[in-house]
């Protein structure tokens, strides 16, 4: 607000200067002086004319005419007493009240029609942007009230107007739009953030989330591609699999939806309150499948590490189920983030490699587990692995990773 008052004071000062210029440059009233000078000039011209007329013999008594001319000049001189009695008006008498009037009128009009309260609220909201942003950056940000959402949107738009290269600001604006179901604004904001930082995982997730809600098939295809990149990069975030499951369910790919929901269950564990909600979603999808519903048969694999195993941060866990004879071609397989050990994973028909050969069709099986260190499934050199004994399907499986290729 300080800047506003300074700017308004400067504008009013300029207005006062423009108004005062005529008074400053105004000369004193010299009408009488001008009249006297004019009369003298006329008197001299007439004397010259009389002299010429006398020489030409047109005038008999020049002196008489000169006396009449002098008398006329004296008659045109104003009464000095009247002049002394007149009151001269000072320019400041008009200028000062006019200045006061302009100042009072300007600010009165602003307070009446200038929305000063809204401007002050806007400045206060803009100053409160950091605090509001922190609330939105965490998952609990959805709990922001409607007023806070409105304030945050106003503050963000103000900041982005002056700092259009702020990728975090565009990300926050996109999240607000998603919370308000404003898909068009969300896609536009997320797209700007993605253009600036296409490698940022949070921005990629936000952009995919906005695109997946679009009615445009091209947008949805791009969203699936981005989500696939996040999964391949081991970006462990429930929202990635939740979006994949949502998209698969909307496309009536119930098998894929079940697979993603089960991945989420493995990530959160049965102790999490969301576990039962995911179970209900899985049951619903299985009902939609009807006769082709996914079998409830699953293989639970408990994995442990030998002390000599060296872990790499970028490693991934590859679990594959094979026939009892140890065939190299797996019947089912899944790739998981490294996580901590020991850990347990569950595979079922959603992890089957071939549509016509389900995991549930096996009577007995064996499980192989490998720590993929380079992100390339085809290369095994230097990777640690382990395999289980042959067990009947439905029985728990234990694998210790203790060998190296």
UniProtKB/TrEMBL annotation:
Cytochrome c-type biogenesis protein H Ig-like domain boundaries: 300-401
Segments traversing the membrane: 88-110
Species, as recorded: Vibrio aquimaris
Entry superkingdom: Bacteria
Keywords: Cytochrome c-type biogenesis, Membrane, Repeat, TPR repeat, Transmembrane, Transmembrane helix
SUPFAM superfamilies reported in the protein's UniProt record: TPR-like (SSF48452)
Domain Cytochrome c-type biogenesis protein H TPR: 118-275
Name of this chain's protein: Cytochrome c-type biogenesis protein CcmH
Subcellular location as annotated: Cell envelope
GO cellular component: cell envelope; plasma membrane
One GO term (biological process): cytochrome complex assembly
Main location: other
Keyword Membrane among record annotations: yes
């Amino acid at each position: 607000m300080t800047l506003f008052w300074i700017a308004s004071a400067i504008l009013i000062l300029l207005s006062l200067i423009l108004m005062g210029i005529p008074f400053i440059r105004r000369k004193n009233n010299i009408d009488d002086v001008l009249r006297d000078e004019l009369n003298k000039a006329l008197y001299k011209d007439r004397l010259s004319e009389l002299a010429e007329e006398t020489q030409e013999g047109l005038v008999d008594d020049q002196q008489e005419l000169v006396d009449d001319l002098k008398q006329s000049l004296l008659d045109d001189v104003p009464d000095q007493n009247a002049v002394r009695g007149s009151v001269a008006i000072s320019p400041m008498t008009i200028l000062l009240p006019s200045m006061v009037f302009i100042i009072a009128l300007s600010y009165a009009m602003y307070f009446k029609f200038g929305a000063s309260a809204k401007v002050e609220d806007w400045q206060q909201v803009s100053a409160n942007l950091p605090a509001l942003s922190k609330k939105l950056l965490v998952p609990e940000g959805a709990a922001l009230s409607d007023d806070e959402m409105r304030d945050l949107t106003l503050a963000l738009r103000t900041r982005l107007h002056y700092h259009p290269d702020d990728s975090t600001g565009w990300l926050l604006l996109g999240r607000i739009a998603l919370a308000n179901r404003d898909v068009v604004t969300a896609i536009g904001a997320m797209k700007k953030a993605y253009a600036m930082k296409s490698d940022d995982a949070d921005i990629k997730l936000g952009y995919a989330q906005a695109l997946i809600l679009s009615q445009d098939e091209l947008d949805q295809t791009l969203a699936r591609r981005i989500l696939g990149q996040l999964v391949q990069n081991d970006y462990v975030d429930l929202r990635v699999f939740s979006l994949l499951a949502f998209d698969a369910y909307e496309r009536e790919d119930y098998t894929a939806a079940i697979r993603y929901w089960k991945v989420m269950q493995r990530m959160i564990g049965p102790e999490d309150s969301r576990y039962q909600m995911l179970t209900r979603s899985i049951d619903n999808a299985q009902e939609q499948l009807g006769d082709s519903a996914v079998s409830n048969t699953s293989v639970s694999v408990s994995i442990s590490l030998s002390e000599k195993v060296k872990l790499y941060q970028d490693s991934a866990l590859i679990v594959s189920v094979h026939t009892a004879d140890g065939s190299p071609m797996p019947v089912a397989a899944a790739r998981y983030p490294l996580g901590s050990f020991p850990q347990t994973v569950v595979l079922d028909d959603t992890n089957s490699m071939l549509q016509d050969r389900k995991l549930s069709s096996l009577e007995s099986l064996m499980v192989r587990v490998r720590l993929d260190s380079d992100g390339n499934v085809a290369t095994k050199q230097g990777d640690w692995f382990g395999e289980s004994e042959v067990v009947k399907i439905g029985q728990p499986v234990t694998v210790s990773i203790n060998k190296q290729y």
